Amino acid sequence: MVRLSPFISAFIPGLFQKSGVVRASPAAIGGKSQLDWMPPRLSALREYLEVLGVIAAVTIAGWFAPSGSYRAFGHIYLLAVIMLCLRVGRGPVLFAAIFSALAWNFVIIPPRLSFSVLDFEDGLILGTYFVVALIAGQLTARIRAQERSERLREQRATALFNLTRALTGARTMDDAVEAALRQADELFSAQTALLLPGESDRLVPHPASSFHLDELELNVAESARHEAREMGRFTTRHPRTGALHLPLLRAGSVLGVLVLRPPPAAALANPAQRELLRAFAAQVALLVEREHLRAASEREKLLAESDRLHRTLLDSVSHELKTPLAVLRSAAENLPKAEETRRADLAAEILTAASRLDRVVANLLNQTRLESGAVKPQPDWCDARDLISAARRGLGDALAGRPVRIEIPAEMPLFMADAPLMEQVITNLLHNAAQYTPAGSPLVVTAGVEAQKNRVFIAIADRGPGIPPKVRGQLFQKFRRGDETQGSGLGLGLSIVRGFMLAQGGDVVAENLPGLGACFTVFLPHTPHESVPIE
Amino acid sequence: MSPTATKPEVLVIDDENQIRRLLRFTLEDAGYAVREAETGHAGLVAAAHSPPDAVILDLGLPDLSGIEVLKRVREWSPLPVLILSVFGQEGSKIAALDAGADDYLTKPFGGGELLARLRALLRRVKPAEPANPVRFGTVEVDLVRRRVTKDGRKVKLTEKEYALLRLLVAHRDKVLTHRHILNELWGPKEAGQTHYLRIFMMRLRRKIEDEPDTPKFLQTESGIGYRLVSDAG
After folding, report:
1. Contact at 8 Å (CB) between A410 and A443?
2. If interface means Cβ-Cβ distance under 8 Å, which residues of chain A face chain B?
3. β-strands B103-107, B81-86: how paired?
4. pTM of the shown model
5. Which of B87, B88, B96, B90 is nearest to B13 (CA)?
6. pLDDT tens digits along A477-491
7. Is the ipTM of this complex over 0.85?
8. Helices (DSSP H) in A408-521: which residue ranges?
């Protein structure tokens, strides 16, 4: 048996070996699984010829054997027929049984070269042989068919399992499609393409497709999509084309078409394989649908976000504009009839309201300029002290009562920046600090050079409560305010800071200084200027 | 100002009715005579017909750009022109100053600011008050003897520092563009070397200002130039 087994396994491709693989340990499931198209099967004629050859060979061997052993040849014929069963179909097996019985009788059973049988015993053996060969052949064929369908089922389960695993592992739709198509390529030993509706509602091949569809195939795919039925090869519609078109159906609508181009000689093996194809297409359909849903929810989210922005914009713009306007109006109305002592107060209120309005409008304009790309920095040499003092001057009363410490090293160099933009940046940072820290708490402004990084920085630190963790992520987004319940403003200040800094090739970072407060630092690239001529 | 003295006359060229009205109130209360023009063309005609003492010109006019009006005025008259502009127009402010405007104000502005600017412009034209020595804060600049003192003590200035201070003093309360100063001090070839100017301004502030980091007198006009504010207490 040991010596025989290579021979047997070569001769019996399915029964021992492959069933072993298919029923294998879980390790094998992860391995490659390949579903053949109907075997590059022996054609019927070849099978009959093979049968003819084998039986003829046994017969010729029997011719030269000692004539006394003719009965033993019955066993050899039986062996040959059963082995043939494992290779050829039912018809050739039947042929083998009949042909071998005749050959045995005619050639080997004495009298040789005659169909007549000498004695009753030989006739009995011949008759029994014929019936046994017939039954054994049919039984083996049936077992083989069962084994085959079993194998297909296993393969199908493994294939779908692998596909699902690949799909869930994929991060993006494109990755998933790529994975699915490569699996299909391998599983069906075919080239595959996925067609999805493009912009003009025509089907467009996905880039991961492994072959190029010509105009004809595209048209077949279009009709498969519109009629929601399989078309192309192996079907009744357009059977002459080279590929099979499977519509991806989900909930009654066609999401796309999966196109499969098997090797030219392949034939569709059996219903099980077609089932597998459909199951595969269903998985891909599921994938496409999932992507559609994801895109829809993404759009939904975007809409919600832009809706939120619009609402915030409307709410806060109307609030921020109307509050000072209301102050202006009522103060102006009261001014003529107010007592002398009140007038100065009213005038002060008008001024405060006006500067608040001014700031809101300036921020809105700046944000608009940023978004429309109208901010074109014109860098010139800037002096940090200059910028800071100009910003403080511009802020006026907003910093009233706050000690501002300025720490700038004497050797602080000039740096290239757009002065008005930088002044606005510092103004916004100072104003922001003033708004979110207790009245009267000090501010510290520092500046310096980071020589190793070739950049200069200006930092504005406060001694307030620091940046709350929940707003950190959206600190520099527009229309986001640190604490919605506290202070006023549009939530544009820091967004403008960031926009202006990025426009100048710089950046801004925010951090909490442990035990102190929040600190905003702006950075700008720096290269020292040429020397200034000595007088 | 006594009612009998001829009032200085200001021509206001602005298309916004309300701005013209408010300017009229402010200016008339301060003792100026006011004429109004709604468009650039009307303004040019009014100015040519009877030259005012000063022009307040809005940069955004419906018919002619403010700069165009300014250029046409400058073809025949050096009369002082104060530009009104809105926020974010640094480029056009500089263009206007380069085209011969004497100063600018950014809307919205306060009445006090406006009157201070106007006074500075008219002073330049009519140096009625004794121009020497010039005082601001505790600093005294004697332009004749080239001597600068602070709190009564002599301040040692280098040649260029003094030249810079003298230029600012001569145009006190009026903006001077970077280009203008560089041109005067270093000549036209160095008009782009703004870092010269910043370095010298830094040094000058250290000698003149009480708190060089928050200067009271030698003030920066971001993106435009410098101004010596002489009445800053």
Report:
1. no
2. 351, 354, 358, 361-362, 365-366, 369, 378, 380-383, 385-390, 392-393, 406, 408, 414, 418-420, 422-423, 529-530, 532-533, 535
3. parallel
4. 0.59
5. B96
6. 777 776 655 556 777
7. no
8. 419-435, 469-472, 493-503
